[in-house]
Amino acid sequence: MKKFNMKTRLQWGWFKAALLGTAIGILIAPTAGEIIGVSGEKKDNTENYISSMLSSISFGSKVKVMINGEVVALAKSKEAGEEAFQSARLAYNAKGVQILDIDVTYEEVDKEKDAEAIEGMRLLRKEKLTEAVLDSFDRYAESDKELAYTMRIDDYTVTIDSMEDLVSVLEKAQGAYDAEDVFKVGLKPTASRNVTMYEVDVTKKEGKDSDAGKEQGAAQTSDSGSTSTQMPGSEAGTQADTEAQTEETGSTTESAGEPETQTEAPSEAGQVFPIEKNQKVLLTGAEASTEEVTSTEGAGDTQAPAEGEPAAASTEGENAGEGTPEEGEEGTTAQSPEVLPQAADDGIKYVGFSETIQVMETYVNKEQIKDKDTAYNEMTAKNAEADIYVVERGDCLSIIAEKTNMSVEEIKELNPSIESDDNLFYDDRLNITVPTAAVQVLVEKQETYQENYNEEVVYQDDDSMYIGETEVVQEGTPGSHIVTDLVTYKDDMECDREQLQETVEVAAVAQVVKRGTKSKPTYMFPVTNWNVTSNFGYRWGRLHAGTDVGVPTGTTVRASRAGQIITAGWLGGYGNCVIIDHGDGVCTRYGHLSEVTVSVGQYVDQGQQVALSGNTGRSTGPHLHFEIRINGEAVDPTPYLYQTQ
After folding, report:
1. CA angle 242, 245, 251 (to 5 degrees)
2. Residues 6+ positions from 343 with CB-CB distance below 8 Å
3. How many percent of the chain have pLDDT more than 90?
């Protein structure tokens, strides 16, 4: 083995001595601290210099932990910084939640740009990194903010000082529609499991039954009970209270109460409502029509109703004779056996809120917090919000005003182009306003009602009759049915209706009408002076699909053939346009009109006025554009106009 020279031996010896000294220093440093009297608390916060130097050695990039833009520590990675911040935040709140107005960010160190900002700072390991972040919190503590609860509904927010007051405000809004106090308002954590955020949740109270009809319906069939007669709460009118007292002998003594005016009394299950002829009336529990109410003039006692059947109402004195019993059943009430079971479950099914309501714990200035009365008034105040109304068949300004709870003048103000009913066309969009509160209560209610109804007209096509000609084959008659719907209201406005059940008492008979499908053999000129300005054919590389006729604006335009109107209004480049379907695959089209005088679905005879000519749409001057299309394909109308029978 080759021997080292003396110089090499000395260097190797010094190196081993340095390593040994370093190891001994690391081992004895903690003990030395105790010997020189470092206290236990100070010792825990004193880092061995050598281990600190070793831990600060990093061969990769460093990350700045910044609070409100100020560098407070250096971490080896963003993940390490986030972990240290979470630990520091928990430690800071260990003695109670404390308010901090801070924004934490993490950025990689740029040695040149950040040289001054990080001067004297070194990379910290986990515990020291947490301590550095924790020490910086005191500089950002807020003392003028309070813990409160902010409720958010879409873009609307309101802040209340306590959870109890917030819930009480919602209960007050919801309770206005929950007269039976069946449902309760509560808060539940969101799906994100963020303990500082909740969603409003409405649930049914234990032991409560929202179907009031069940309880009152049961009272009707008990051995001892009473049945009252009154008009539904939705209809103001005269109310007569009638009580039937059932005794052990099975006899019932009835007495008519004094009429009294009712304005807003809600319908209650189990009551008997007289149903006026041709009028839709809610059936809650048991009801009978006015034609079925039995009069017992001078009678003292009447027979008690059988179980499951409605009690027969009677009147005395001047009221006698108002109701006429059915033939063969004098002294009894004719009542459909399906009425009571179908209406037994009527009543409110749910009372909650139409929108998702979120609640968040927040720290805000005192002036941002509102008391519960102010919050309630603000949340329930109805403000006008913009909406669109689509014009339906049969609409006029007064009808639209009634539907939208607006005045005719208000509608005109929002729609400057509408001056009268003549400016309204089917499927037009009108600007309207709808009074809407920030918090809208959603009510689902089951309603059973009786009403007259008509079947839709049945048309029979007849190719022996010309289009536009009709003949009534069978007259229709109205029927009567009992319908159960699940109706949804937002506040007091109905927004949805779903039919659950229908019981037909008297079937309606549909009117049967024959209508002609035969086209008249000729086409007539739609305007009197046929002054052609542009013929059918290609021009400028495009097909001109009809014939242009130069006529002054306001010239009467007539149907070239009899048929049914399928378009009556604006149609792109055609401007105001009328299209008539002649029933045999042929349609005629009239464009650039100033005014349309027919409506969709209307049948017109040949020569009948359908519009006035004009200059609307893609037009360079007043004229009529006339087309004939066969099975959707445009043809030259000239040969058809000049043909004879």
Report:
1. 120
2. 213, 269, 283, 284, 285, 286, 287, 448, 482, 484
3. 34
